[in-house]
Specification:
Shape: globular
Strand content: under 5%
Strand order of the largest sheet: 2-4-3
Length: 291
């Protein structure tokens, strides 16, 4: 039964990947770019920290200091959206501004099912530079514009339904009586698998689009690159000290591959290559239809 379940598990992952794949079919980075990325992650000198860690008592005043970045970035995304007709531009004006929540241990940011962007104070403390904070906001806005949140929720729902059905079918075939809680566990597992289908590719897309948004906002084009370097080093330190991981990197591609794509994107922006890329193929719904 275990072998059969593993086979169906892999089939489900493949099915979910096809249901809600990435928007772009990005070319893989060259070995030269991967080598450059590896060197940069280890040796790049980062800008000095200009925003210092805060306490809960100071968090109210800090939100005011954080406001210019979130307003500037949201306005830039609105302009970019109008110009490129990308995503849900007609709904963008009604989206709330990003919010910061005080949690010094949470080094993360995310867009929720209502397209609301939440940034945790632990991430702000780790970055320590306003341009890099703007880059993270651009990355999360890119997820919203590309419909990644909706795709992940759809995949999670499909996985949550199919996993217990598959388990039930296998149990009947093997004449095994499973406890009801087992089916709830299978549903939870299916939702996790579904929500993470194609997550690395979606992160690469959001990274790419974030650099174009940074250009629109007038921030440094290397802000997302520097943010990734800083978070990568924080992640390495946390793992080596046994303190856990950096949440922002948990479902993301390998650091070398991600940084190599980032370096290629910066070159594209400087060369006035459209955000879709000169070799990237835009994936449309027909790609997932049966012949």
């Amino acid at each position: 039964m275990r072998t059969a379940f593993l086979s169906w598990f892999l089939l489900l992952v493949f099915f979910l990947s096809g249901c809600a794949g990435p928007v772009l079919d990005l070319p893989e980075p060259t070995n030269q770019k991967l080598t450059e990325a590896h060197r940069l992650l280890d040796h790049h000198k980062l800008p000095p920290v200009t925003v210092f860690p805060i306490t809960r008592e100071d968090s109210g005043s800090y939100v005011d200091a954080y406001s210019p970045t979130k307003y500037r970035m949201r306005d830039a995304v609105a302009r970019f959206c109008d110009r490129t007709h990308l995503g849900r531009c007609d709904e963008f004006s009604s989206l709330p501004y990003p919010a910061m929540e005080y949690n010094p241990k949470m080094i993360n940011a995310h867009a929720d099912q209502h397209d609301r962007i939440i940034v945790y104070s632990g991430l702000v403390d780790t970055l320590g530079v306003q341009d890099e904070l703007g880059a993270v906001l651009a990355h999360e806005y890119a997820h919203v514009l590309l419909g990644h949140v909706d795709k992940s929720l759809t995949n999670a729902a499909v996985g949550g339904v199919i996993f217990p059905l598959l388990l039930g079918g296998l149990a009947v075939a093997a004449d095994v009586d499973l406890h009801p809680s087992t089916y709830f566990d299978a549903a939870d597992l299916g939702m996790v698998v579904g929500s993470r289908a194609y997550s690395p590719e979606m992160e690469l897309e959001a990274d790419r689009l974030s650099v174009y948004i940074l250009e629109e906002a007038g921030y440094s084009l290397t802000a997302m690159r520097d943010a990734l370097v800083r978070l990568h080093r924080a992640h390495t330190d946390a793992q080596s000290s046994g303190l856990g991981t950096v949440g922002f990197l948990e479902t993301h591609p390998s650091s070398d591959r991600r940084m190599a794509h980032m370096l290629a994107t910066i070159e594209d922006v400087l060369a006035d290559v459209p955000w879709m890329g000169k070799t990237a193929r835009v994936v449309v719904e027909e790609d997932f239809e049966e012949d």
